[in-house]
Design brief:
Elements lengths: L22 H7 L2 H5 L12 H5 L12 E6 L5 E5 H19 L6 E5 L4 H12 L3 E5 L5 H11 L3 E4 L1 H7 L11 E4 L14 H7 L14 E7 L7 E6 L2 H11 L8 E4 L6 H13 L3 E5 L5 H10 L4 E4 L1 H9 L3 H4 L8 E4 L6 H11 L3 E5 L9 E2 L13 E2 L5 E4 L12 E5 L9 E2 L3 H5 L2 E2 L2 E10 L5 E6 L4 E3 L2 E3 L1 H8 L5 E11 L3 E10 L7 H14 L8 E4 L13 H9 L6 H4 L3
Parallel strand pairs: 1-10, 3-4, 3-5, 5-6, 9-10, 9-11, 11-12, 12-13, 25-26
Antiparallel strand pairs: 1-2, 7-8, 8-18, 13-14, 14-15, 16-17, 17-20, 19-20, 20-21, 22-23, 24-25
This protein binds adenosine-5'-monophosphate-propyl ester.
């Protein structure tokens, strides 16, 4: 079905005037330098993300403005002003420096639920000059070991129950010197590690923030590729310029907004737009600790009077699935701007937003590596449902062929970007060759395929690699295959993404068993549970198909493309060439 363009009102008819008033003009006039001077730098080369996000507001009338309004899974609430977040993060920075000996550049990782302490500790770490690495609390021991081990993190902030989940891999992490436990009513844990509360009680609330250089490392997020273990995309303090500008012009944050980003801090969306972007704009954020629940989400939107909402396609599709009766029991009058990221947003979902909330969802596109939004739909621009929108001012995007020559509109090719924006990653941790390999002929190659139409709107086509996007989580098939073959019954495994109407893709594994084992439902469940426990529920195969042998290249590499073609009933193509790797 063809979806009609959603035409936007002219500027003067917007009740809240969008920050981006004239897109073509902004494209022409854009200067990253100019926007960066809206932020509070220490001098022309030095700034610190935590200072820009929090402390800079203490000099303004936002000092006592609410920065974080938090609601627990049980419904308890806590609120923190910018001043309170500043003091608490100072305390944490003191604890890190004085008690743990953290120095500039040391990695500090977070394996914690979405509780206020994660926000405070992340800000405190940045103030101390540390490099933050947030992890999903749903991770299992292998997923944590791979990331904490690769980064050689010195400190891990976790909770007693989460520590117990990974306790077996801690001896394999020699660089990890300290674990800090955030204990929110879990009772006495009988663990030797220091408690967050005790460290905070003894720490001073004034801290001389480390005057980091704009190129000093600040943030690491691990992301999955086709081969090998996940790699750490490294961002620097200057990234906050990109977070700030895109939160201002794409999320359109204004002084009176109540902003809700549903992303977990373990995902780059949860730091760029769940912390630094909105706070550098001085916005009030609401955070719900729990996961998805249609009933709870609608009630949260209404009770918190959310005005700007940033969420993801799988969640939107799950809301749609829950039916239109439920949202009609609520009022969303204050909600004025809706954004979505992480997977293709189907046109039905864009339009559904308009029906239910009076506003269409504004899709936007970016990656862990790009650090901030690159392509977007803007409040002032018409939406073509199904399109990711147009490049952000200051970002040059293009569609290139496999020789990196630019293609004209209408042609499908590799989505590429001209490097040079502030929040661009600076390397993959200890894998600089891999980082360099992402650049060709002056382009950064994103790994996505797309098209651009005659009006400059971009349309997502797919990925160029085997990485699976399941409900917005990128899952590397290699990671899952590595865990599968550790299961005692599994001889070989090949993993693909299988299309799914809600999650976009789900993980499907093809497994051949060792001689002594026979396929059974019980074994299938056992293998699923095994991956879930070691990696995470997102990575656990939703489907397992037992097959006698897996198709392989002559060098023994499993041919996932063939498995996928079989699964989708597509022509298998010329397999003789594929066998050559
Ligand atoms: O394939 C694209 C898909 O998600 C990838 C980036 O994933 P990750 O690094 O986890 O993202 C972090 C922040 C969004 C992209 O390479 N993707 C992201 N946004 C969209 C998308 N695919 C289609 N449409 C989008 N709007």
């Amino acid at each position: 079905m063809e979806y009609q363009k959603i035409t936007k009102k002219p500027l003067e008819q917007h009740a809240v005037k969008p920050n981006l008033k004239d897109y073509p003009e902004a494209i022409k006039e854009w200067s990253w330098d100019q926007v960066s001077w809206e932020l509070d730098w220490f001098d022309k080369d030095h700034l610190n993300i935590a200072h820009v996000a929090i402390d800079a507001h203490l000099k303004t009338n936002r000092r006592n403005k609410k920065a974080l309004i938090w609601e627990s899974k049980k419904g308890e609430g806590e609120e923190y002003t910018f001043l309170e977040l500043s003091r608490l993060s100072n305390k944490f920075a003191n604890a890190l420096v004085n008690e743990m000996g953290v120095q500039k550049g040391d990695r500090v990782f977070f394996f914690l639920e979405r509780v206020p302490e994660i926000y405070i500790a992340i800000l405190g770490t940045l103030k101390a000059g540390g490099v933050i690495g947030p992890l999903f609390s749903a991770f299992g021991p292998d997923a944590v070991k791979d990331r904490v081990g690769d980064s050689e993190a010195k400190v891990l902030i976790t909770s007693p129950s989460l520590k117990k989940k990974i306790v077996e891999v801690i001896p394999e992490l020699p660089a990890l010197k300290h674990i800090i436990l955030v204990n929110r009513g879990e009772g006495k844990a009988n663990l030797d590690d220091p408690y967050y509360d005790e460290l905070m009680a003894n720490a001073s609330e004034s801290f001389d923030i480390v005057k980091t250089h704009k190129e000093d490392h600040a943030i690491m997020h691990y992301t999955s590729g086709t081969t090998g273990k996940p790699k750490g995309a490294v961002h620097v303090h200057e990234a906050v310029v990109g977070h700030y500008a895109t939160a201002k012009y794409v999320l359109d944050l204004h002084e009176g907004d109540v902003y809700w980003c549903t992303a977990d801090p373990g995902w780059v969306t949860g730091t760029s737009y769940g912390m630094f972007g909105p706070w550098s704009n001085g916005a009030t954020q609401v955070v719900y600790e729990g996961g998805f629940s249609a009933k709870h989400w609608y009630s949260f939107l209404e009770r918190k009077k959310v005005t700007v909402w940033y969420t993801a396609p799988t969640a939107i599709r799950m809301l749609m699935k829950a039916g239109n009766e439920l949202p009609r029991q609520h009022s969303f009058d204050p909600l004025r701007h809706l954004c979505s990221v992480g997977e293709p947003l189907n046109p039905e979902a864009v339009v559904w937003g308009k029906e239910i909330f009076g506003n269409a969802f504004h899709d936007n596109w970016w990656q862990t590596e790009t650090g901030s939004i690159m392509i977007a739909n803007y409040p002032i621009q018409d939406i073509k449902p199904g399109s990711m929108g147009r490049p952000f001012p200051g970002i040059e995007a293009g569609i290139v062929d496999d020789d990196f020559n630019e293609l004209s509109h209408g042609n499908e090719g590799n989505l590429a970007l001209k490097p040079g924006w502030p929040s661009m990653f600076r390397t993959y941790w200890k894998k600089d060759d891999l980082y360099q390999s992402r650049f060709r002929k002056g382009w950064y190659i994103t790994g996505d395929r797309a098209k651009r139409d005659e009006e400059g709107y971009y349309w997502f086509v797919g990925r160029t690699d085997d990485v699976i996007n399941t409900a917005g989580h990128l899952v590397g098939p290699f990671e899952v295959e590595s865990v599968l073959i550790e299961h005692p019954a599994v001889a070989e495994a090949g993993v693909i993404g299988k299309p799914d109407p809600i999650a976009m893709e789900v993980v499907k594994a093809f497994v051949s068993l060792k001689d002594d084992y026979a396929p059974s439902e019980e074994l299938r469940h056992d293998i699923q549970k095994f991956v879930m426990k070691r990696l995470s529920s997102a990575a656990a195969p939703r489907e397992i198909e037992f097959i006698s042998t897996l198709p392989k290249t002559r060098s023994g590499k499993i041919m996932r493309r063939l498995l996928k073609a079989k699964e989708l009933g597509l022509p298998l193509g010329d397999t003789s060439t594929m066998e050559e790797d």
